[in-house]
Amino acid sequence: MSTALLGAIEWSGSRGIIERTIAHLQLVGLSLLIALVIAVPLGVVVGHTRRGGGVATAVVTAGRAVPTYAVIALLFPLAIIWGWGLGFWPSVVALVLLAIPPLYTNTYTGVRGVDASLVEAARGVGMSGRQVLWGVEVPVALPLILAGVRTAVVQVMATATLASIFGYQALGSYLTEGLAQQDDEKLLIGTIAVGVLWLVAEGLLGLLQRWLTPWARADRGSRAARRRARADAVLVGPAVPTGTAPDAPALTSAGGAEPINTTSPR
Asked: What tens digit of pLDDT does each residue of 4-56 get?
C-alpha cells in the first residue's frame, strides 16, 4: 500500500476506518450468530432423526435464490417506518437468509452421513439416542459443520457491504462513496479493508478448526501415508519373499522339442 493511499485513510471519527470496521463486524457477527442459532440445531435434529430432511432442505435451499439486495430493499421502508435505523436491521435479515443455507446443509449432511456402523456400535454398548448424537454423530460431523461456518463467514462478510447503499456506515461506505465521487482511492481502501478482514477471519477459523478437530488432521496424515506407501509399491514392484528365487526358464534340447532333464538319475 503506497504512502499516498495510507495518507488518504481517516483512522478516527465516525467516518474513520476503525469505526467502520467495528460497525462492519457488528453487522456480520450478529447476522452469523442468528443464522447459527437457527441453522445448526435444525440440521443436527433433522440429520439425527432422518425425518423431514427433504422438506427442510428444500425450504432452506430456496433462500439461495432470494437476492440479498432485494431483501434489503423490501425491508428498508419498514425499517424507516418502525424506527429500526437505516440499513442495519434490513441487512441483518438479508444476511441471515444468506448464511443459513451453507450452515444447515453442511450440518445436516455431516450428521446424516455418519457411518451407520459407528451408530450401531454406540447403541450396542448401551448409549442412548442423545449420547449417540453428542458423543458420536456431532464430533464426526464437526469438520464439515465448521467448513459450513467458514463458507458462511466468507459470503456474509463480502455481502455486508451492501448495507452501506441503504445508509449504514461500515466498510461498504468506502465503495459507495468512491463510486459516487469517482474516487479510486476510496474504492481501493474499501476493497483492501474487506479483503484483509476476511483473511484474518479465515485464518482464525482455520486455527479454531484445527484445534477443535485434531483427529481429522491425524486421519489426513494416515491417509497420506497410505497413499505414499501405495505409490512406493507401484514404483518398486512386488517384493520377492526372502529365501526364494524366481523360477528359472526351462532348458530345451538342441531341437527345442523337449526340455532337458537336469536331475540326476536315482
From this structure: 555 556 666 667 888 999 999 999 999 999 999 999 999 999 988 888 777 88
- Tell me which architecture the domain covering 10-229 has in CATH: Orthogonal Bundle (1.10)
How far apart are the C-alpha atoms of 188 and 199, rounded to whole Å? 16
Measured CA to CA, the distance from residue 247 to residue 231 in angstroms comes to 27
C-alpha cell at 81: 417506518
Task: Kindly write down the DSSP assignment for every residue of 118-141, as one continuous string.
Answer: HHHHHHHTT--HHHHIIIIIHHHH
Cα dihedral across residues 225, 138, 26, 80: positive or negative: positive
Residues 162 and 122: their CA atoms lie apart, in Å, by 47
Give the C-alpha distances (Å, rounded to integers) separating 49 from 111, 112, 193. Answer: 10, 9, 43
Q: Provide the 10 A C-beta neighbour count for residue 109.
A: 17
Q: Which residues does 86 contact at the CB level (< 8 Å), separation at least 6?
A: 76, 79, 80, 166, 167, 168
Q: What DSSP element (H or E) covers 154?
A: helix 138-159
Helix axes 17-49, 172-181, angle to 10 degrees: 130
Q: Three-class SS of residue 252?
A: strand
pLDDT in tens, 159-178: 999 999 888 889 888 888 88
